[in-house]
Structures are given as structure tokens and as C-alpha cells.
Amino acid sequence: MTNHKKVDVDKEKLMEKVYNRGYELEQRYDGCAQCTVAALQDYFPVNSALVKAATSFSGGIASTIKGPCGAFTGGVMVLSFFLGRSREEFSDISLLRRPGPVVRAFWEQFEKAYGGYSCSEVQHHLFGTAYRFLDSEEHRQYEEAGGLKDKCPSVVGQSAAWVAELLIESKVPILKK
């Protein structure tokens, strides 16, 4: 990891920038988990490999909608990247639990806002139904209902903003932007 100077930051302004970036990326590229991670990467020193690793976590894992929302998963990935236990720290079992309180805070915030954390629960909250992304007709209906226009982009933006807030509070270095 590169050395980063401490950057004085207005937390609310940074959260707004991260929100807007996540929203924009999801609208443009789709892939909620990757877009959440990438939005945070623009403001925090996130390794590029993490963006790639997030690929199949979108749409409830591989677009099945059965697993966790990708915006949630991407957020957990970034929190764990900064607060989690490294391979060199495996012998210290207590470090396995280090990110727990922060991840739980994110989970509770997410669940309260969206009525759950699974892709299908989030979709029910946003649309009143859940669209199966692997069914081309249902995917078309999802897009017509604003799935990529504003619904999922808002979830990605909000998730990224909440994670940014938690990273700032955890004193993770911020890239100068």
C-alpha cells in the first residue's frame, strides 16, 4: 500500500461525493458490488483486485437475486479490506472479529433503510416485487421500472456513502481528490 498523507476532510462533503460517484457508476456500468467498491476506490486506497473480486457478487450473487445485495456485499468487502485480518495475522484469532462492530453498524443501517439485505428484499422495497435478472423478460421489466435509471444506483450510492462514513470514523486514510 502506498503512503498517504492525512487529508483533512469534510465528512458530509466526502459522503456526498462518494454517493454521487456510486450512483453514476451503477447507472453507467451496472454491477452493484463492483460499482460500490469502485466508488470507494476513488476516495480511499482500495486495491484494484478488490474491484475485480466483486464481479460475481452483483444481483444477489451471479444475478440470482437469492443472495445479499451486491451494494451491501461490496460495502462489506471494503470494510473488511481495511479493518480485516491479514494472512500474516492468521495466528491472532481475535483479529478475525476486529471489523465486526463496524460491519454490523453498516448491516443495521442497510437493513433499516431497505427492509433487509438480500437482493430480493431490496428489490421488494424499491419496486414492490423482485425481478429475476437471469430471465430476459423480467430483466427488461426491471430496467423499465427504473432499475438502472435511479433505483439501484441510489442503493449503490447510499451504501458507498455509509461505508465512507464508517471508514472516516475508523481513521482509514483518504486519497486527496
Task: Walk me through what this model shows.
The protein has 177 residues and is mainly α. The protein has one domain. 59% of the residues lie in helices and 0% in strands. It is built from eight helices and no strands. It has helices spanning 11-29, 32-41, 48-53, 70-83, 100-114, 119-127, 136-144, 147-169. α1 runs antiparallel to α2 (32-41). The longest helix is centred in the C-terminal third of the chain and has 23 residues, at 147-169. The protein starts with 10 loop residues before the first helix and ends in an 8-residue tail after the last helix. The model is unreliable at 1-6 (pLDDT under 50).
Q: Count of DSSP E strands?
A: 0
Low-confidence stretches: 1-6
Instruction: Characterize the largest beta sheet: strand count, sense, and whether it forms a barrel.
Output: none
* Through-space gap between termini: 18 Å
Strand content: under 5%
Note the quaternary state here: single chain
Percent of residues in helical segments? 55-70%
- Tell the overall outline: globular
* Secondary-structure content class: mainly alpha
**Overall pLDDT:** 94
| Structural Rg | 16 Å
Helix and strand element order: HHHHHHHH
* Total of domains: 1
Number of helices: 8
Blueprint of the fold:
Layout: H1 11-29, H2 32-41, H3 48-53, H4 70-83, H5 100-114, H6 119-127, H7 136-144, H8 147-169
What does this entry show, briefly?
This protein is 59% helix and 0% strand. The protein contains eight helices and no strands.
Keywords, separated by commas or semicolons:
8 helices, 177 residues, mainly alpha
